[in-house]
Amino acid sequence: MTGRCRGLGADLVLEKCDLELEVNGRDHHTADLCRDRLVVRRGQPFWLTLHFEGRSYEASVDSLTFSAVTGPAPSEEAGTKARFPLASAVEEGAWTAVAMDQQDGVLSLQLGTPANAPIGLYRLSLEASTGYQGSSFVLGHFTLLFNTWCPADAVYLDSEEERQEYVLTQQGFIYQGSVKWIKSIPWNFGQFEDGILDICLTLLDMNPKFLKDACRDCSRRSSPVYMARVVSAMVNCNDDQGVLLGRWDNNYKDGVSPMFWIGSVDILRRWKTSGCQRVKYGQCWVFAAVACTVLRCLGIPTRVVTNFNSAHDQNSNLLIEYVYDKFGEIQRDKSEMIWNYHCWAESWMSRPDLQQGYDGWQALDPTPQEKSEGTYCCGPVPVRAIKEGDLSTKYDAPFVFAEVNADVVNWIVQEDGSMCKSTNNSQTVGMKISTKSVGRDEREDITHTYKYPEGSPEEREAFKRANHLNKLTDKVETGVAMRIRVAQSMSMGSDFDVFAYITNNTAESLTCRLLLLARTVSYNGVLGPECGTKDLLNLSLEPFSEKSIPLRILYEKYCECLTESNLIKVRGLLMEPAANNYLLAERDIYLENPEIKIRILGEPKQNRKLVAEASLRNPLTMPLLGCTFTMEGAGLTEEQKIMDVPDPVEAGEEVKVRVDLRPCHVGRHKLVVNFESDKLKAVKGFRNIIIGPA
């Protein structure tokens, strides 16, 4: 940008403004975003170089005043407009410009931004005057992000390892499966991939609060609490032109199955290229992962967490009540739900709007379940408030508390219509709350951040505070116990046994009826068809004895009705007619998919061609049709991401595909792979690739 300032002396002519993309990108941890634009983090100075033509800037003659504005109606009152002169020193907490060096006609500057400035796209202008005359011109545009490296920023983290993991890392894992068999799913967050930052800014400008009052919305973008709430609402499309449409009925033919996605990038690009039309389809981990991508891109430290045995308490009584008939079949219309697992996001920030002690990790849930202040969003709520049972805390503490603490009551409907309470010690809500470890491809259990140890005085105090009366009653111990046992692991396509393991700890002989039932189940607890059953009318239990009753589950029974969650629920109902006692036990079984093997061919160096080979062996006794590999990450182009395999892939046959990679940057990359066919769904694999300098 060039400009001319005429005054009493010689003209001051600006030849160009250099935004110093390389040095600013390095200093602000935005190098991946600064290839053709300036992206910096608030509360930290950035460099700017002005090149003058004809004569140099003279402080005694020339006056330079800068202007930074964001949003469609910037104002100083709203904090979206700042005018600041060239000063002699940086002033903390204010917009400042300081001359750092001058060589002939080149003036090097540092511009400082407040650590609480609204984030977003800014236009930077300069007014230059000599004497009574002057002119102004645009120096360029820059995008301002939250800054977890700045102690004055509300998203400040003091651990460099955690900053790297929760802001800069572009790949990770999401945990699925069942509480007894936790499965890690690789995910490409891709927050620094081409176009993603622009899409995130578009998402902010599409939110209803911006459309209603753009000036107020842009002003409030200084707050990570506000931003997290906006993103939570905009990732689903229930109230707005949000990103994802949720669906849970296993009918995804007019879109993409939620299990098919392996990253956020494809989803966000589809939303943008379709004119911000909803993308079909998402489920909880997809909603949480896309929110994680957007929030990390904006600079807010964020992670995806999974809660196993997650309660959906619709009437806010902290009770999940299941009603069964005398055959152990659940009466769906009379029951609330426990999901096998449920994923949400956590973001790190201070909470100046709340009492002291609630800074840190905040839970936010973009999956549309219940409305919050009239909108389908949830949080952010301090994880610490959940642990303490402080349900008056903003936002949506009762719902999140119930997800990890609700009590479960089981009722059996008698022949006369009356209901008898059953004992079930196998259903505990809120277990193995999981997230990826910092700097390692391993699971970290963070249950202790949500809950005190079971039975501890602190747990009892938290339940009192939450008025969780059910949890304060002592559990009734029974003389007979039952649990469901399984083999060490069960793989897709195999036949296997599960066992009802029953102990009689009384001095009496008992005659019972045992019903064993296996049904396929979706991760959100919705049951499918039966795939195994056994009914023993007269089961004798000797005093102080143990018994193990097997149930055989055949592939031919579950193959057609298994959902993409790969889950089977086994339930046992033990009835003692003489005493009218009922004992329930259940277990969710995860069937393990075959392994995708990934080899990297070539020398892993910057800008060198590499070849990735992905292979999978058909573990079934029948051929596979419609086989497709999908890949994300590691420098892949759009055209390379989907590779079809010729039909059929016979039983036991190994199928291979190869794709060219060209990683641009030195460092760690992750290639994420998904395999789909008519009988094998959502098989995931990944490979870390360490790229060295050329």
TrEMBL record:
Gene3D superfamilies linked to this entry: Immunoglobulins, Transglutaminase-like
One term of GO molecular function: metal ion binding
EC numbers: 2.3.2.13, 3.5.1.44
Stored Pfam families: Transglut_C, Transglut_core, Transglut_N
Record text on cofactor binding: Binds 1 Ca(2+) ion per subunit.
GO BP terms in the entry: proteolysis
Binding site for Ca(2+): 405, 407, 454, 459
Catalytic activity from the UniProt record: L-glutaminyl-[protein] + histamine = 5-histaminyl-L-glutamyl-[protein] + NH4(+); L-glutaminyl-[protein] + L-lysyl-[protein] = [protein]-L-lysyl-N(6)-5-L-glutamyl-[protein] + NH4(+); L-glutaminyl-[protein] + dopamine = 5-dopaminyl-L-glutamyl-[protein] + NH4(+); L-glutaminyl-[protein] + H2O = L-glutamyl-[protein] + NH4(+)
Active site annotation, chain numbering: 284, 342, 365
Localisation: Cell membrane; Chromosome; Cytoplasm, Cytosol; Mitochondrion
GO cellular component annotations of the record: chromosome; cytosol; mitochondrion; nucleus; plasma membrane
InterPro entries, alphabetized: Ig-like_fold, Ig_E-set, Papain-like_cys_pep_sf, Transglutaminase, Transglutaminase-like, Transglutaminase-like_sf, Transglutaminase_animal, Transglutaminase_AS
Domain Transglutaminase-like: 276-368
Cofactor annotation: Ca(2+)
Key words, A-Z: Acyltransferase, Calcium, Cell membrane, Chromosome, Cytoplasm, Extracellular matrix, GTP-binding, Hydrolase, Membrane, Metal-binding, Mitochondrion, Nucleotide-binding, Nucleus, Protease, Secreted, Transferase
Family: Belongs to the transglutaminase superfamily. Transglutaminase family.
Subunit and partners: Monomer. Interacts with phospholipase C; promoting alpha-1 adrenergic receptor signaling. Interacts with PLCD1.
Protein name (record): Protein-glutamine gamma-glutamyltransferase 2
Annotated organism of origin: Ailuropoda melanoleuca
